[in-house]
């Protein structure tokens, strides 16, 4: 059994012994069989699976999110601190490809159902939180028109045979890595952005074309923020970081669920208030996406999260967004307190 000092070491370069390898298989199998509710499906690319890291906290904290000299308070009940204490922690190296492959397969096997909705596993416990009470309200003509257009966007599936979808994907690459030539729409280069594999189109099945539009809007509207998050430029980063692109798809899915966009009109308070913002600014959803991405990354850093904490981080982000969208004095998307993160 590893010493306590070894257990605390998150940045070891020691090659795992055969015993550690066998223990790894047992722990991974146990997590696949008994902890699938905490497994973030098959969303982690092979190249983004470095050393194992488990985040433990003995008591709830109230961290501050600090971005660009802005201090942003995180309430205690917004954070779901997970207390995971393993008898043994595994020591990984970048060359432990067999273990990494098995871990990725474990995530894949955790998917439920015939269709792998990327965001479904993360949010199935919280999608009905704000829909218990129906909120009826009138829509102005401009609000109704823009809500309908947004709902139509949500229904568009990504189609890799459509030229406009292909061009949008190429444009995303150019915005992300302007000095690197793209070899093709199917290429291992896409893994550098945080896609599951060489073909990003397989990831878009979880949320459709709007998730690509959101990423592209973020890259074009706020390029500095986009690249800072893409390249993980700020903060004490985890050894196992979240994959940028797939995290973006999950944020799109989370917003669609939170705002109740699959209904004829949103039935929850955050959703109904959002429609007012949409009436004031047709780009409100895309801007809210950028805000949510910034907030998610800030939560990630504040919670000292690792890959297994992504569900908690995203739920904490959703709770904070719901609170801000429920404020009475929010008349524009820029009035959201978290807009200062951009």
Task: Provide a quick synopsis of the model.
Residues 164-325 form the ELMO domain. This protein is an all-alpha fold and 342 residues long.
Distance between the termini: 46 Å
Count of folded domains: 2
Question: What percent strand?
Answer: under 5%
Whole-number mean pLDDT: 73
Determine Rg (CA atoms, Å). Answer: 20 Å
- Tell me the quaternary state: single chain
Sketch the topology as an H/E string, one letter per element: HHEEHHHHHHHHHH
Fraction of helical residues: 40-55%
Parts with pLDDT < 50 across at least 5 consecutive residues: 1-132
Largest sheet geometry: 2 strands, antiparallel
- What's the arrangement of strands in the largest beta sheet? 1-2
Overall shape: globular
How many distinct helices?
A: 12
Question: By helix and strand content, what is the structural category?
Answer: mainly alpha
Number of beta strands: 2
Features:
single chain; 342 residues; mainly alpha; two-stranded antiparallel ribbon; 2 strands
């Amino acid at each position: 059994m590893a010493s306590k000092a070894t257990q605390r070491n998150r940045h070891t370069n020691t090659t795992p012994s055969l015993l550690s390898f066998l223990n790894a298989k047992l722990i991974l199998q146990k997590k696949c069989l008994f902890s699938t509710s905490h497994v973030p499906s098959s969303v982690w690319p092979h190249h983004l699976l470095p050393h194992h890291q488990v985040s433990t906290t003995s008591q709830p904290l109230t961290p501050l999110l600090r971005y660009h000299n802005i201090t942003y308070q995180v309430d205690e009940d917004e954070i779901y601190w997970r207390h995971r204490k393993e008898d043994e922690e595994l020591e990984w190296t970048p060359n432990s490809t067999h273990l990494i492959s098995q871990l990725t397969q474990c995530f894949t096997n955790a998917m439920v159902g015939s269709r792998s909705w990327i965001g479904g596993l993360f949010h199935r416990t919280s999608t009905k939180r704000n829909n218990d009470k129906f909120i009826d309200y009138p829509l102005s003509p401009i609000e109704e028109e823009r809500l309908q257009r947004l709902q139509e966007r949500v229904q568009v599936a990504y189609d890799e045979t459509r030229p406009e979808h292909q061009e949008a994907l190429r444009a995303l690459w150019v915005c992300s890595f302007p000095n690197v030539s793209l070899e093709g729409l199917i290429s291992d280069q896409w893994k550098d952005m945080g896609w599951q594999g060489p073909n990003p189109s397989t990831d878009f099945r979880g949320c459709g074309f709007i998730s690509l539009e959101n990423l592209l809007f973020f890259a074009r509207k706020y390029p500095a923020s986009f690249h800072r998050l893409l390249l993980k430029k700020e903060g004490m980063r985890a050894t196992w970081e979240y994959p940028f692109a797939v995290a973006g798809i999950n944020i799109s899915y989370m917003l669609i669920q939170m705002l109740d966009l699959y209904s004829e009109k949103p039935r929850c308070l955050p959703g109904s208030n959002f429609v007012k913002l949409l009436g004031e600014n047709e780009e409100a959803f895309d801007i809210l996406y950028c805000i949510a991405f910034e907030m998610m990354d800030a939560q990630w850093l504040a919670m000292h999260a690792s890959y297994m904490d992504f569900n908690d981080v995203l739920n904490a982000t959703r709770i904070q967004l719901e609170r801000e969208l429920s404020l009475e004095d929010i008349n524009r998307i820029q009035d959201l307190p978290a807009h200062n993160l951009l």
